[in-house]
Amino acid sequence: MIFLTFIYIIVEALLATFFFKFGFKYLSHFHTLGENAQGKQWNEALQIYERTTGDNSMLILLFSVFAIAACILFIWILVLLIRNIKQILKLEKEGKHIPTFKEILLELLDSKFHITLLAAPMTTLVLFTVLPIVFMILIAFTNFDANHQPPGELFTWTGLTNVIDIFLGNSTKTHTFFGILGWTFVWAILATFTNYIFGMLLAMMINHKLVKCKKLWRTLFMISVAIPQFVSLLLISRALEPAGAINLALMKIGLINAPLPFLTNPTLARVCVVVINMWIGIPYTMMTFTGVLLNIPEDLYESAQIDGATAFQRFTNITLPYMIFVTAPATITTFVTNINNFNVIYLLTGGGPFGLDYYQAGKTDLLVTWLYKLTVDKHDYALASTIGIFIFMIASTLSIAVYNRTGSVKKEDMFQ
Amino acid sequence: MSNRNKKISILMHTVLAILSVLWLIPVFWLVLSSFRKEKGAYTSTLWPKAFTFDNYVKLFTDTRLFNFPKWFCNTLFVAVCSCIITTILTLMVAYVYSRLRFKSRKALMNISLVLGMFPGFMSMIAIYHFMKSIGLDQTLLALILVYSGGAALNYYIAKGFFDTIPISLDEAARLDGASRHVIFWKIILPNSKPIVVNTAINAFIAPWVDFIFVSVIMKDNYDKYTVAKGLFTMVDKANIFEYYTSFCAAAVLVSIPIVLLFIKLQKYYVSGVTAGASKG
Questions:
Q1: What is the pLDDT of residues A196-238, one digit of tens each?
Q2: Interface probe with B: pick from A21, A144, A230, most Cβ of B within 10 Å
Q3: Which is nearest to B254 in space by CA: B280, B277, B278, B231?
Q4: Is the pTM of this model over 0.90?
Q5: Distance CA A387, CA A372 (A)
Q6: What is the DSSP-derived secondary structure letter of residue B47?
Q7: Are residues A62 and B117, on separate chains, in Cβ contact within 8 Å?
Q8: Residues A263, A240: Cα–Cα separation, whole Å
Q9: Contact with chain A for residue B20, Cβ under 8 A
Q10: Tens digits of per-residue pLDDT, B248-263?
Q11: A78 within domain boundaries
Q12: C-alpha to C-alpha distance for A70 and A63, rounded to whole angstroms
C-alpha cells in the first residue's frame, strides 16, 4: 500500500505539470475565449506585412476542457491518496497486516476485477467521446460560425442566443427546425414500422412449413446486406435520376413518356427514401424475426392445438404477442437509430429537393443530416451543436425510459 | 399434399421469387456496370453494349490518382486492428456489467447508453484537433483509435448474451478457487463464441463502410484513404464520368470478402442478433 501511495503521488505530479505547463495558458483565456485576433503588422526592415500569432478560440476551448478534466482527475486521485494514507495509519495503529503491492494487484484480478476491465475502455471513452462531446456542448453557447473562424477571427460566449434563435425566433431557422423535426418523426415512424411489418411477414413466409429451401431464400435476401450501404445507395440514387436506369426502364416499357421526378418532387422524394429504406432494412429485420420465430416454445403451439385453436387464432394469440413482446426493446432502438439515419437520406437525396423556405436544408433532410451539412459544408458549428444537443435529448430520453422499463433490464438475472 | 396446400405453396414461392429478384436487381446492376465498356454513370441502353475486364485491371494498374490497392491495404490494416481492440474492449465491458456488481454499475450503464445517442460526427472537429495536437492527424493509427474508442458504448448485445450463461457455472468455478479473472477467460469467453464472432464481424465491417471520419481525419491525403472514402471520391462530380465503372468494379471487389464472411458466419450472426433482440 505504501508503494501504491508513491504511484498516486507520481500521477499527481504529472497531472500538475500538465496543468501548469500546458493547460493553464489556455484555461486563463477560458472566460473570453481569446482577446487578440490574428493580425498583420508592417515589418519596416523587410518591407512586408507579417502575420502576428493571435489567440485561437477553438484551441483555447478544447484544451481548457482537457485542463478541467485534468483538474477533476487530480482531485479524484487526491481523495484516493488521502483515503489510502488514512487506511495505512489505521491499520498500523490496530497492528494489522498492511496489504503488500502484490496483494493489491491480485485483488484487482478478483474482487476489484471490474476496475481492471473497465480501465482501458473508460479511458478511450473519456478521451474520444466524453471530452469531445463536452466541447461540442460548450460550442452551442458561442458564436462559432462561418464568420468567426479561428485563427483569423475569434469567437466568444453568446449565452443562449442560439437556442433562442432556433426555438423561439421567427426566422427561417425556426421554420426550418420545426419543419425538419416533423419530417424526422414521420420518417422514423414510417421507416421503423414498414421494416418491422414487412420484415416480420417475410420471415414468417420463409419459415412457413410449405416453403422449401429456407436457407437459400434467406441467403438471397442477405446478399444485399453485404454490399456496403454507401455503394448500393449511391447506385440507386443514380438510377433514380431523370437520366437514370429506372426512368429509362419505365420509358422503354412504355409506362411513362417523360422521366419521373423521383428525387426532385418533395412528396415523391419522401416516398422514395421510405421505399428504398425498406430495401436496406428488411433483410436485417427478417433475420431478427427468423431467430425469434425459431425460439418460440413449441409446447405453446401444442397445447393450443389440443384446445382446437385454428391457424389464425394460433397466430394472433401466440406468434404475434410473443414476437411483439420479444422485439419491443429492439424496435425502440431501431426507432432511435432511424431518427439518426444518416446514410439513407444523405446518400440518396442529399436532403433535397431544396427550397428557399429552409435554411441550408432540403425537404427530405433529417435533423442529423442538416446538422452534418451545417458542420461540414457551412462551418456553422454553434447552430449545429445546438441541434445536436436537442437530438441527443430526444434520443436519450426515449432510450433511457425504454431500457429501464423493459423486462430485460428488470429481470436481467432471470436466466442466471 | 392437398390441393389447397399446393396452391398456397406455389403462391408463396412465386412471391418469394419476385421479392428476391427485387432485392438482387441492384446487386446485379452493380456487377453488370463493373464489366461495362461504355463509360459514365448514365447510359442510353439498359444492357451494356460491350463488356470488358479493363475496369478491374485499371484499378490495379492505373494508380496515379486513385491508388486502390493502397486503400485496400489501409482498410484491411485498420479493420484488423480495430476489430481486435474493439472486440476485446466490448467483451470486457459487457462482462463487467453482466457479472460484477459494484456501486456505480447502474449509473455507468445508463451513461454509456446515453453517450451512444450523440451523433458521432458532432465530436469529430474536437477529435481532429485533439489528434492534431498529439501529432496523429492523417495517420491510420488515429482511425483505429476513433473506431475502437467508443467500444465501451456497444456493450448491450454482448451483455444480453452473457446474462443467459448460467451463473451456476461461475459459482462452481469460484468454489474451486478460481478468481474472476480466470472465470472470464476460462468460462465466459469459451461459452460465448456466437457473440464474439458477432462483435468481431461488426467491428471488422465498420472501417469498410465509414467515409465520414476518414474525410475528417485524412482531409485530402488520398494515399491514406480507406476504400469507402476513396470510392466516394471516385464518384464526386469531377470524376464520375471517367471513374463510374471503376467505382462499380472496386465496389464488387470490396463486397466479395464481406459476402463470403456473411455466408460463412451466418449462423453466428443470427444467434448474435437474436441474443440482442430477445434480451434488448
A1: 999 989 988 888 888 888 888 888 888 888 788 888 888 888 8
A2: A230
A3: B231
A4: no
A5: 10
A6: S
A7: no
A8: 7
A9: yes
A10: 999 898 888 877 877 7
A11: yes
A12: 10
N-term to C-term CA, chain B:
40
Asked if the structure places residue B17 within a domain, the reply is no
- The CATH number linked to A280 is 1.10.3720.10
Q: Which residue of B251, B255, B270 is in closest CB contact with A287?
A: B270
In this structure, the answer to whether residues A400 and A298 fall within a common structural domain is: yes
- Tell me, what CATH number does B215's domain have? 1.10.3720.10
- Name the residue of chain B whose CA is nearest to A59's CA: B129
Contact A292, A326 (CB under 8 A): yes
Q: Flag whether residue A217 sits within 8 Å of chain B, measured between CB atoms.
A: yes
Distance (Å, whole) CA A413 – CA B173: 19
Q: Answer yes or no: do A43 and A134 share one domain.
A: yes
pLDDT at residue B274 is higher than 60: no
Q: How far apart are CA B34 and CA B27, in angstroms?
A: 11
Give the whole-angstrom CA distance, residue A170 versus residue A173.
Answer: 8
- Residues on chain B touching A105 (C-beta within 8 angstroms): none
Peptide bond into A261 cis (omega under 30): no
Query: What mean pLDDT is predicted for residues A374-384?
Result: 85
Chain A residue nearest residue B5, CA to CA = A210
Hey, what long-range contacts does A30-37 have (CB within 8 A, 24 or more apart)?
A: A30/A60, A30/A61, A30/A64, A31/A157, A32/A156, A32/A157, A33/A57, A33/A60, A33/A61, A33/A142, A33/A154, A33/A155, A33/A156, A33/A157, A34/A60, A34/A150, A34/A154, A34/A156, A35/A154, A37/A151, A37/A152, A37/A153, A37/A154
Residues 6+ apart with CB under 8 A from A228: B208, B209, B228, B251, B254, B255, B258
The count of structural domains within chain B is 1
Cβ count within 10 A of residue B244: 25
Give chain B positions within 8 Å (CB) of A232.
Answer: 26-27, 30
Domain boundary residue among A125, A159, A193?
A: A159
Report the gap between the CA of B242 and the closest CA in chain A (Å).
Answer: 15
Contact between B99 and B164 under an 8 Å Cβ cutoff? The reply is: no
d(CA B201, CA B262): 9
Question: Closest Cα partner for B99 from B32, B172, B165?
Answer: B165
What range does the domain containing A251 cover? 170-410
Say if A307 is an interface residue toward chain B (CB within 8 Å). no
B22 touching chain A per CB within 8 A: yes
Residues A202 and A96 in one domain: no
Q: What is the pLDDT of residue B275?
A: 53
Nine cell digits for residue A80? 484516493
pLDDT (average), residues B83-88: 92
Closest to B254 (Cβ–Cβ): which among A228, A336, A371?
A228
The pLDDT tens digits of the residues spanning A66-94 come to: 899 999 999 999 999 999 889 888 988 88
CB A274 within 8 A of CB A344: no
Please provide residue A142's backbone torsions phi and psi, each rounded to the nearest 5 degrees. -120, 180
